[in-house]
Design goal:
This protein has about 150 residues and is α+β, with helices and mostly antiparallel strands. The chain folds into 2 domains: about 1-40; about 45-150, Cupredoxins -  blue copper proteins (Immunoglobulin-like), CATH 2.60.40.420. It has helices at about 10-35, 45; strands at about 50-55, 70, 75, 85-90, 95-100, 105, 110, 120-125, 130-135, 145-150. The protein has a 4-stranded mixed sheet with strand order 2-1-4-8, with no helix packed on it. A hairpin with a 7-residue loop joins β9 (about 130-135) and β10. This is Copper-binding protein. It comes from Candidatus Nitrosomaritimum aestuariumsis.
């Protein structure tokens, strides 16, 4: 009788390789890929603009027919002032609510999460050209528009 002597090293090595490939695939698809796709790639000069555009909710904005969002039809330019801040200078709580659901691929949904109490601020970083019409939820006669334009240079 003859007995064959074979090494199990080849089988163990193959199993180890399959386990490593499986673990790598799980890590890549489960952790790395979702993190890398979570936010789009946006140039640094758009994420860190030169300045901030300030829109004031002025004193007396709650009165129908009075000035409310100043400037009312604001224009922001990517790379220059696409970080926009609304400041409630009025004595009454207000909101910054889009007329239609609006989202920025990088910053998410546009609109204050709730009311802005007197002295509070809401800021939003726009990363793409668009035009948004917005209003105050409790005071629908308060309306404004923000236009985001590409930089010309």
């Amino acid at each position: 009788m003859s007995s064959s002597t074979t090494s199990h090293a080849y089988g163990v090595g193959l199993i180890a390789l399959l386990v490593a490939v499986g673990a790598s695939t799980i890590f890549y698809t489960g952790f790395y890929l979702p993190e890398s796709l979570a936010k789009p790639s946006v140039p640094e000069h758009i994420l860190k603009p030169e300045g901030t555009l300030i829109i004031d909710i002025v004193v007396g904005a709650v009165n129908e027919g009075a000035d409310n969002y100043v400037p009312n039809k604001a224009v922001a330019t990517l790379e220059q002032n696409n970080l926009v801040k609304w400041i409630n200078l009025d004595d009454t709580p207000h909101t910054v609510s889009p007329d239609h659901r609006t989202s920025d691929a990088y910053s998410g949904d546009f609109g204050s999460a709730g009311v802005l109490m007197p002295g509070e601020e809401y800021e939003f970083l726009f990363t793409a050209p668009q035009e948004i019409h917005y209003h105050c939820q409790p005071h629908p006669w308060m309306t404004g528009t923000i236009i985001i334009e590409k930089s010309r240079f």
